[in-house]
Amino acid sequence: MKWLNAITRRRPALDPPLAEALAGYRALEIPDLATPLAIQRGVVVDVESTGLDPFTDRLVSIGAVVVHGGLARLSQSFEVVLRPAGAIGQRSIVLHGIGESAQRAGRDPAAGIVNFLTFAGKAPLIAFHADFDRTLIERTAANVLCMKPANTWLDLALLAPAVFPRHASRHRALDDWTKLFGIDNPARHNAAADAFATAQLLLVVLAAARAQNVSTWNELIALQRAQRWLGVRH
């Protein structure tokens, strides 16, 4: 993939504060995922993009919220809109709802990605249909920073049916699962609001996982791997 080749290019020059922040991220240790679920800080992520293909469409915004100690920490949340380099397709605004003026006023993509990595650290990142979010973030980081974030990703679209198998056949989309558990999201398709709703779903999944003797993040990753190996549709 061409965007992966961008990682090997010479790193772009960054303003000193951004360069220092990125160096700080790189220096962080990867957390020990053998720690109990409630102890390890996790970061729930949602993105908005110009379309549905993470390999060709542009990352427009990132929303994120910390989950730690059995709580979704709304006071520890993050949101950034990335400023486009070229023309803005008006059709894409219908998908993500972020107008042209808001996009033009957004952060430079390199700064936006560094800001996100500084917020998340190297904590595990959790999303619903995580491959979509991961690919967009990694592709953008490769293009503007010539690097790949080192975070582990978990996918709630795999984990929710794994711990709630009797609901798996009738619940596939994020809206299906949030409705099942009475999780309200009045600002659907806003990255920050979707991240908070997804964080609440994560708490439900973590509680169910603990009840099934899944006690660490590594065990959760193994559960996800088994679900993916089974070829479960999501």
Descriptive account of the structure:
The chain is an alpha/beta fold and 234 residues long. It has one domain: Ribonuclease H-like superfamily/Ribonuclease H (Nucleotidyltransferase, domain 5, 2-Layer Sandwich). It has 10 helices and 5 strands, in the order ααβββαααβαβαααα. It has helices at residues 2-5, 16-27, 90-96, 100-104, 109-120, 130-145, 156-163, 174-180, 191-211, 217-229, and strands at residues 42-49, 59-68, 71-81, 125-127, 153-155. Strands 3-2-1-4-5 form a 5-stranded mixed β-sheet, sandwiched between helices. The model has no long low-confidence stretch (mean pLDDT 90).
SSE topology string: HHEEEHHHEHEHHHH
Count of domains: 1
The best one-word shape is globular
Instruction: Work out the strand percent.
Output: 5-15%
Give the C-alpha Rg.
18 Å
Please describe the topology of this protein:
Elements: H1 2-5, H2 16-27, E1 42-49, E2 59-68, E3 71-81, H3 90-96, H4 100-104, H5 109-120, E4 125-127, H6 130-145, E5 153-155, H7 156-163, H8 174-180, H9 191-211, H10 217-229
Parallel strand pairs: 1-4, 4-5
Antiparallel strand pairs: 1-2, 2-3
Brief digest:
It is built from ten helices and five strands; from the N terminus they run ααβββαααβαβαααα. It is α/β, with parallel strands linked by helices and 234 residues long. α2 (16-27) runs parallel beside α5 (109-120) and α7 (156-163) crosses α10 (217-229).
Name the features.
single chain, 234 residues, alpha/beta, Nucleotidyltransferase, domain 5, five-stranded mixed sheet, 10 helices
